[in-house]
Design a protein that fits this description.
The protein contains 13 helices and 21 strands. By secondary structure, it is an alpha/beta fold. Strands 1, 2, 3, 4, 5, 6 and 16 form a seven-stranded mixed sheet that branches. The mean pLDDT is 97. The structure holds NADPH dihydro-nicotinamide-adenine-dinucleotide phosphate.
Length: 453
C-alpha cells in the first residue's frame, strides 16, 4: 500500500500547474490536479490568449486605413463586439477542453474543487481529504486595484474580456503590460481611450527608450496619455463615472480599467497553517528547486512572483517535474528571458536595458535605428520602428536587444537564442540580413549612438 493517495497533488490548473502535473505523470508519478475554475489559468482564460485575439481584432482598424494606399477601397467596416467575444469564448472553451484532454491522456486525475492545505502532506479538495508525498501550489495571481474611494466601480482585465458592450470612453490606469495592451485594444476598436499613469515614463523596468517611443506611437494613434497623473476617487454619475484626479482635475468616462499589477493568489489556501513562509507581498518563498519552507510543499509560477510570464511558469513546471520524479534536479535559468508587450505597436525585449548594462558591465556601446518601415511609404502610416542593441564594449557581447514595432515579439524571439548563446556584435555583423525586412536592421547597425551626428 502506498503511504499517500498520490505522489503529487497540484493546486491550480494554469500553465505552470498543468505542465508540472503532466510531466510528473509522464515520469510515472500518480498525480491529481485540483482546480476550481476553468483549466488553463490566467493565460488561457483571462490573459495572453484572449488578449492576443482582441489585439488582432483591434489591428484591423489600422489595416483598413493602410490598405487605401495600396489600392484598396474598403466600403464599410462595422465592428461587432458581441460577435468577437462569442468567437473568442468559443476558442477559449476549445482550449479548456484541450487542457483537460492533455491531463487525462497523461493519466492526471483532475478534481474540480477548491484546494486547501491541511498540513505538509494533506489537501482538502471540496469534500475530500487527500494526501500526497509532494504538494505543488500553482495558484497564480490576481489583479490588484488600489483602495481608493469608488474602486469597486472600476473593472480589471478579468472583466474586460467579458464586457457586454464596448464603452464610448474608457480610462485605463497603469503604465505596465496590461495598461498599454488594453489601451491599444480599446483605441483600435474605436473607443475614446485615456491612459493614466502615475510615473513619467511607460513600461518601467524596460529599457527607457522603449517606454518613451511607445508613448509617442500610442499618442500618434490617438490614445490620450496622462503621465505623472493618478485618480483619487471614482463616483457614479448617472450612466457615467466621474473621476477626480490627485491634481484636482475632474472628468467623466464610461469605464475605468485598473491595470495596476497582480498579487500572488495565496489567501485562504491554508498556507500559514501548514507552516509555509510567505513574502511581504503574499508570494510563497521558495528555494532554487521551488521548495517552500515546508520541504514537501513546492510552488511555481506567478504565486512565487519571480517573473510573471506564462513561458517562465511552464519552464519552472518542467524543472520541478524533472527534480521530483526524473532524478534530474533542475534549476531555472532566469537569464535573458525575452518578453513582448502586445501594445500597438508591439514592444519586445531580451537581455539588459542600457541602464542595467551600464550598472553591471560599465562601458557599453549602444546602437539605435529609428525609421519608417517600407510599408509606410504607400500606406501613409506615420508609425516608426525603433530598434536598439546594447553591447559590452570590453567583450563585444550583445547584452540587450530591444524593439518597438510591428511583430516585435516575433523578431526578438530569434535574437533571444543568439543572446542565450552569448553572441557578440561581430557575430551580429557577420550575419547576412533578410531583405527587405525591418529585422535586418539588427544586423546592419554599424555606428554607435555616441558617434552618430
Ligand atoms: P505591471 O506590474 O506590468 O504594471 C503595473 C502598473 O501599475 C505600473 O505601471 C505601476 O506603476 C502601476 N501601479 C501600481 N500600483 C499603482 C497604484 N496604486 N496607483 C497607480 N498605479 C499603480 O502589471 P500589469 O497589471 O500590467 O501586469 C501584471 C503582470 O502580468 C506583468 O508584470 C507581466 O509580468 C504579466 N503580463 C504579461 C503580458 C505579456 O507577456 N505580454 C501581458 C500582461 C501581463 P509603477 O511603474 O510606478 O510601479
Amino acid at each position: 500500500m502506498p503511504r499517500y493517495d498520490y505522489d503529487l497533488i497540484t493546486i491550480g490548473g494554469g500553465s505552470g500547474g498543468v505542465r508540472a502535473s503532466r510531466m510528473s505523470a509522464n515520469f510515472g508519478a500518480r498525480v491529481a490536479l485540483i482546480e476550481e475554475r476553468q483549466l488553463g489559468g490566467t493565460c488561457v482564460n483571462v490573459g495572453c490568449i484572449p488578449k492576443k485575439l482582441l489585439s488582432y481584432a483591434a489591428h484591423y482598424a489600422g489595416d483598413f486605413a493602410d490598405s487605401a494606399g495600396f489600392g484598396w477601397s474598403v466600403a464599410s467596416h462595422d465592428f461587432d463586439w458581441a460577435r468577437l467575444i462569442a468567437n473568442k469564448n468559443r476558442e477559449i472553451s476549445r482550449l479548456n477542453g484541450v487542457y483537460a484532454k492533455l491531463l487525462n491522456d497523461a493519466g492526471v486525475t483532475v478534481i474540480e474543487a477548491r484546494g486547501r492545505l491541511i498540513d505538509a502532506h494533506t489537501v482538502q479538495a471540496g469534500e475530500r481529504t487527500l494526501t500526497a508525498q509532494h504538494i505543488l501550489v500553482a495558484t497564480g495571481g490576481w489583479p490588484v486595484v488600489p483602495p481608493i474611494p469608488g474602486a469597486e466601480l472600476a473593472i480589471t482585465s478579468n472583466e474586460a474580456f467579458h464586457l457586454a458592450r464596448l464603452p464610448e470612453r474608457v480610462v485605463v490606469v497603469g503604465g505596465g503590460y496590461v495598461a498599454v495592451e488594453f489601451s491599444s485594444i480599446f483605441k483600435g476598436l474605436g473607443v475614446r481611450t485615456t491612459l493614466v499613469y502615475r510615473g513619467s515614463q511607460l513600461l518601467r523596468g524596460f529599457d527607457q527608450d522603449l517606454g518613451r517611443v511607445l508613448a509617442e506611437e500610442m499618442a500618434q494613434k490617438g490614445v490620450e496619455i496622462l503621465l505623472d497623473s493618478n485618480i483619487e476617487r471614482i463616483e457614479r454619475k448617472g450612466a457615467a463615472l466621474a473621476l477626480r484626479f490627485v491634481s484636482g482635475e475632474t472628468r467623466e468616462t464610461d469605464l475605468v480599467l485598473y491595470a495596476t499589477g497582480r498579487a500572488p493568489l495565496t489567501h485562504g489556501l491554508g498556507l500559514e497553517a501548514a507552516g509555509v513562509a510567505l513574502a511581504a507581498n503574499g508570494a510563497i518563498k521558495v528555494d532554487e528547486f521551488f521548495r517552500s519552507s515546508v520541504p514537501s510543499i513546492c510552488a511555481i509560477g506567478d504565486v512565487i512572483d519571480r517573473i510573471q510570464l506564462t513561458p517562465v511558469a511552464i519552464a519552472e513546471g518542467t524543472a520541478l517535474a524533472n527534480t521530483l520524479f526524473n532524478n534530474l534536479p533542475r534549476r531555472m535559468d532566469y537569464g535573458n528571458v525575452p518578453t513582448a508587450v502586445f501594445s500597438h505597436p508591439n514592444v519586445a525585449t531580451v537581455g539588459l536595458s542600457e541602464k542595467q548594462a551600464r550598472e553591471r558591465h560599465g562601458e557599453v556601446e549602444v546602437y539605435v535605428a529609428h525609421f519608417r518601415p517600407l510599408k509606410g511609404t504607400l500606406s501613409g502610416s506615420t508609425e516608426r520602428v525603433f530598434m536598439k542593441l546594447v553591447v559590452d564594449r570590453t567583450t563585444d557581447r550583445v547584452l540587450g536587444v530591444h524593439m518597438v514595432g510591428t511583430d516585435a515579439g516575433e523578431v526578438i524571439q530569434g535574437f533571444a537564442v543568439a543572446l542565450k548563446c552569448g553572441a557578440t556584435k561581430a557575430q551580429f555583423d557577420a550575419t547576412v540580413g533578410i531583405h527587405p525586412t525591418g529585422a535586418e536592421e539588427f544586423v546592419t547597425m554599424r555606428t554607435p549612438r555616441s558617434r552618430q551626428a
